[in-house]
Design brief:
The chain has a single domain, classed as 3-Layer(aba) Sandwich (Glycerol-3-phosphate (1)-acyltransferase). It is 43% helix and 15% strand. The protein contains seven helices and seven strands. The protein has a seven-stranded mixed β-sheet, with helices on both faces. α4 links the parallel β3 and β4. α1 runs antiparallel to α2, α2 crosses α3 and α5 packs parallel to α6. The longest helix has 30 residues. It comes from Anseongella ginsenosidimutans.
């Protein structure tokens, strides 16, 4: 019975999802008509809110907790674990004052309404996973934008999503590149729980009735610490919050 309900709710959700993508694709084209990055990022932020609301259709609860006063006007380097594509919208919406930019595989730069357009024009790092030199260059370019415009950027140092919620090893080279080209950044760790459960059905139906949580952890000043050491410390900090 639950599976049948999830199929019905998923069908409703996918219709919602498609309409949101198409509607915001038009909105994104309008927002970027004067080549204004911030206008496009604000459109992305409201798009993220609509995606979050879509998860409520599936009877999933979304809770984002931040008890820290993050500085305005200072670049942020947001470091978080990765369980699902749905990890992203709550970060974008709840930290919208900081206009987060992301690393994405270059294949997403074409073929996805609105998302591909935003990735190409927002300053995101579009990387070829098979070409480490190109990936580092793209991340460096994004970090320069974040440094200059006092934005924020997000890295998932596990590299790929965890299919069972268990935390993987954190790679440190991307972190090192970001800190090198954005030396003013404050590191903001976030622990994400249970978004992997949305994909438990491994098919059309998205899992329902899950409590999905995002928790902003105490920020870290990176000055005087190397990236490898920071990656280990961030892994330990986030691991304590993963249930």
């Amino acid at each position: 019975m639950k599976m049948l309900l999830e199929y019905i709710l998923s069908l409703i959700y996918y219709v919602w999802f498609g309409l949101v993508f198409l509607g915001f694709h038009v909105a994104g084209l309008i927002a970027y008509r004067n080549r204004n990055r911030i206008s496009l990022l604000r459109t992305k932020e409201y798009f993220s809110l609509f995606i979050i609301k879509g998860l409520l259709i599936l009877n999933n609860r979304v809770k984002f907790t931040n008890t820290h006063r993050l500085p305005q006007g200072r670049p942020l380097l947001i470091v978080t674990n990765h369980q699902s594509i749905y990890d992203i919208p709550p970060i974008v919406w709840n930290l919208r004052r900081h206009h987060p930019l992301f690393v994405a595989k270059k294949e997403l730069s074409r073929g996805v309404p609105f998302v591909s357009f935003v990735l190409r024009h927002s300053g995101a790092a579009l990387i070829d996973r098979g070409n480490s030199r190109q990936a580092i260059k793209a991340i460096a370019e994004m970090a320069r934008v974040v440094q200059q415009e006092r934005l924020s950027m997000v890295i998932f140092p596990e590299g790929t999503r965890s299919k069972d919620g268990r935390l993987k090893t954190f790679a440190w080279k991307g972190l090192a590149t970001m800190l090198h080209y954005c030396p003013d950044a404050l590191i903001v760790p976030i622990a994400i729980n249970n978004t992997w459960k949305l994909h438990r059905n491994k098919g059309f139906a998205i899992s329902s009735g899950n409590k999905l949580t995002w928790k902003v952890l105490p920020p870290i000043e990176p000055a005087g610490r190397n990236a490898e050491e920071l990656a280990e410390a961030l892994h330990a900090q986030i691991a304590k919050e993963i249930s």
